[in-house]
């Protein structure tokens, strides 16, 4: 199915920016939002240089503010209507990776990650699905993580829990609209280079460059499968092994 008009949250950098560039190459019109508006302005110019035939709409957005999420999503929908189109796809991508071991004095950072990654994602899904239900069509894409399948120690504890939460939430929505012309896809990226991975220090295993990762993400999204692992190898293999990992193995992983 051809999804021409696409909304991406957290689009100012990392995977969001990378996906926007790949969709622009495919001739898609884009609605982009993030907290850092100056980066969105620069990205809009870059995208129009890539493909001058597309439309690019940008707005600032903090996904933890529910009223703002609904307002921005509805405004983008109206933008596409002015181009005789509809909002075809929403990619729930905005998130953060702050955090530390529970009980070590980083409660504020852990809560910020929890609220942004789960409650913020819920806000986005609510707003997107309200539009899709009204028009009886659309594709909801939720960017989860390979960390969604197990609990992890240290800085990954809260992050992994939020990604498990959005995975479950997306599956619930998928079941709810099973007989409707609305598709729901959950994407499980492995390690793809971004600002978040740059903050780790030592590069994690099996990490791929942002450009390659973005191409693979867009390819997976366009297939509209219920669940996709990006890249497929080795992460689909790890998914099969994860239930058998001991806690000692998880600490090292």
Please explain how this structure is put together.
This protein is α/β, with parallel strands linked by helices and 253 residues long. It has one domain (5-252): Rossmann fold (3-Layer(aba) Sandwich). The protein is built from nine helices and seven strands. It has a seven-stranded parallel sheet with strand order 3-2-1-4-5-6-7, with helices on both faces. Helix 1 runs parallel beside helix 2. The radius of gyration is 18 Å and the shape is globular. The model has no long low-confidence stretch (mean pLDDT 94). Its EC number is 1.-.-.-. It is an enzyme of class 1 (oxidoreductase). Belongs to the short-chain dehydrogenases/reductases (SDR) family. InterPro entries: NAD(P)-bd_dom_sf (IPR036291), SDR_fam (IPR002347). GO terms for molecular function: oxidoreductase activity.
What is the strand and helix layout of this fold?
Layout lengths: L4 E5 L4 H12 L3 E6 L2 H14 L5 E5 L5 H17 L6 E4 L14 H29 L2 E6 L12 H21 L5 E8 L5 H4 L11 H14 L3 E4 L1 H10 L5 H6 L1
Parallel strand pairs: 1-2, 1-4, 2-3, 4-5, 5-6, 6-7
Family: Belongs to the short-chain dehydrogenases/reductases (SDR) family.
EC number: 1.-.-.-
GO molecular function: oxidoreductase activity
């Amino acid at each position: 199915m051809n999804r021409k008009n696409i909304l991406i949250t957290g689009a100012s950098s990392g995977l969001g920016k990378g996906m926007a560039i790949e969709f622009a190459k495919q001739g898609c019109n884009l609605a982009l939002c993030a907290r850092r508006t100056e980066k969105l302005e620069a990205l809009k110019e870059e995208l129009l240089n890539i493909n001058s035939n597309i439309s690019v709409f940008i707005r600032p957005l903090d996904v933890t503010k529910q009223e703002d999420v609904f307002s921005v999503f509805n405004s983008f929908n109206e933008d596409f209507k002015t181009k005789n189109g509809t909002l075809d796809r929403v990619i729930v991508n905005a998130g953060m990776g702050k955090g530390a071991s529970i009980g070590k004095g980083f409660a504020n950072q852990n809560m910020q990650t929890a609220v942004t990654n789960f409650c913020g994602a819920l806000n986005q899904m609510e707003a997107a699905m309200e539009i899709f239900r009204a028009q009886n069509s659309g594709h909801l894409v939720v960017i989860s993580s390979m960390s969604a399948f197990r609990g992890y120690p240290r800085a990954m504890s809260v992050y992994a829990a939020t990604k498990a939460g959005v995975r479950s939430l997306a599956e619930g929505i998928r079941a709810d609209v099973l007989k409707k012309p609305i598709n729901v896809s959950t994407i499980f990226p492995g390690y793809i280079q971004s600002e978040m991975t740059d903050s780790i220090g030592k590069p994690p295993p099996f990490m791929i460059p942002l450009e390659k990762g973005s191409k693979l993400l867009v390819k997976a999204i366009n297939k509209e499968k219920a669940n996709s692992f990006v890249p497929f190898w080795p992460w689909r293999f790890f998914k099969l092994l994860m239930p058998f990992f001991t806690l000692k193995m998880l600490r090292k992983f």
